[in-house]
Design a protein that fits this description.
Elements: H1 2-25, E1 47-51, E2 55-59, E3 69-74, E4 81-82, E5 88-92, H2 95-99, E6 109-117, E7 124-134, E8 142-145, E9 150-154, E10 159-166, E11 172-179, E12 195-198, E13 213-224, E14 229-239, H3 244-301, H4 306-329, H5 334-356, H6 367-384, H7 398-405, H8 408-414
Keywords: Signal
Signal peptide: 1-19
């Protein structure tokens, strides 16, 4: 019994001695320090949601001693701050920020945050988080047209105005337009700030309408992303007006008819005047021949020669005989003379009326009266000259006809004599 006990005792004593040696070998002052761990923020919240008039206070922490580090923010919304020494984020969501437009509801603001070692600039961490503000007090957004009350326009007159928005809690994202009557060729309003343009046609208002005017009610319906709606109405009163493009075409056609008829009259006058000139030339020849024959007979009758005296007695009779021959061969064209004078006076009349009834400005208010005046004057002249054969063919240009018609000889021949 003593041997096994002694063996066990020596064994225990040996292991105790080894344990003491091991404890001495691994003393605390001889331990190797662990390697440096990277800097990081251990409690970052990536998303903050704040109610208006609420307060935010959030302490950021790092995995190292914060005494040697400083904090900073980038792109921070107005009022959001961070303690540079302790990393405490603070914010007071005052309603004044939102009423002034410096902050907006339901808009995520991305903020850059960072922490850096004061002794080692390379030891730095950059991260980000988002802040969103909301409000349970809903302020409705409204549509605001740039016109107020009723808009009075005439047919063919353009209408133009803008649809603006007064932004509330939720901005208006789309606009739909409806009309009490079908309209066409107008600019579509789809968002805030778009311009409405429309020019009423000349068939919108009828003479049978009350006051010869048509009421058109335009409704603009704005919708937010939350489904809230606002409606703005604009009343356009379209009055019946002259279809000016058609009236201009009618005036131009009337003026064209007058100008064409004046050219026909000028060519007819040219033909008549040339006939009158030929007749006058032939009658003048007969008159000169008759006078020269009578004068020759008078001279020969005083001659001493008997034969010459007999001839001188005969020649005056010959001169007198030429007078009925002249009237028979080349009679006086009094009718042609009267027609030429009448045509010339009517040409002057039409030219004067054409000049007096010209259009003034882009929209002459007297265009209907002037058109009617030209038509009436043309009709009266045509009735006065109904018996005058109008020459429809013309081998001369308008410039040549005007040069002949206004020549000094013609003016002298047909001028009025007092």
């Amino acid at each position: 019994m003593r041997k096994p006990f002694l063996s066990f005792f020596f064994l225990v004593a040996f292991f105790c001695a080894r344990a003491q040696d091991t404890a001495i070998l691994f003393r605390p002052d001889t331990l190797v320090p662990p390697p440096d761990i990277p800097l990081r923020i251990i409690n970052l919240n990536p998303y903050f949601t704040l109610h208006v008039d609420s307060t935010l206070s959030y302490q950021l922490q790092i995995n190292k001693n914060p005494d040697n580090y400083f904090w900073f923010l980038k792109n921070a919304p107005v009022g959001l701050k961070i303690g540079k020494d302790n990393g405490l984020i603070t914010f007071r969501a005052d309603k004044a920020y939102f009423l002034s437009g410096k902050l907006r509801y339901d808009v995520p603001y991305k903020v850059m945050a960072g922490v850096q070692n004061l002794n080692d600039p390379k030891e730095r961490v950059d991260t980000s988080f988002s802040v969103v503000f909301f409000n349970t007090d809903i302020v409705p957004s409204k549509l605001k047209p740039t016109v107020y009350g009723n808009i009075w326009v005439e047919e063919g007159e353009p209408v133009s105005f803008r649809i603006m928005c007064e932004t509330g809690s939720f901005p208006i994202e789309s606009i739909l337009m409806t009309s009490s009557l079908p309209i066409k060729d107008y600019s579509v309003v789809q968002k805030c700030g778009d311009e409405f343009n429309w020019t009423p046609d000349y068939d919108v208002a009828k003479e049978s309408d009350t006051g010869k005017a048509k009421n058109i009610l335009l409704s603009f319906i704005g919708t937010t992303k939350m489904g809230f709606k606002d409606t703005a109405t604009v009343r356009i009163i379209v009055r019946d007006a002259l279809n000016y493009p058609v009236a201009v075409e009618e005036f131009q056609q009337a003026a064209k008819n007058v100008d064409r008829y004046v050219l026909q009259l000028k060519f007819t006058f040219l033909q008549l005047d040339q006939k009158l000139r030929k007749t006058k030339g032939a009658r003048t020849t007969f008159d000169l021949t008759s006078a020269s024959t009578s004068l020759t007979g008078t001279i020969l009758s005083t001659s001493s020669d008997q034969g010459s005296q007999r001839t001188g007695k005969i020649l005056p009779s010959v001169g007198l005989a030429l007078v009925p021959i002249k009237e028979a061969a080349v009679p006086t064209k009094a009718v042609d003379q009267n027609q030429a004078s009448q045509i010339r006076s009517n040409i002057k009349r039409l030219e004067y009326m054409r000049q007096e009834n010209q259009l003034v400005g882009k929209k002459d208010p007297d265009i209907l009266r002037k058109t009617a005046k030209l038509k009436d004057e043309l009709k009266q002249v045509q009735m006065q000259l109904i018996d005058v054969p109008i020459e429809l063919t013309n081998d001369l240009s308008e410039e040549e006809l005007n040069r002949y018609f206004n020549s000094p000889k013609v003016n002298k021949k047909y001028r009025l004599k007092g």
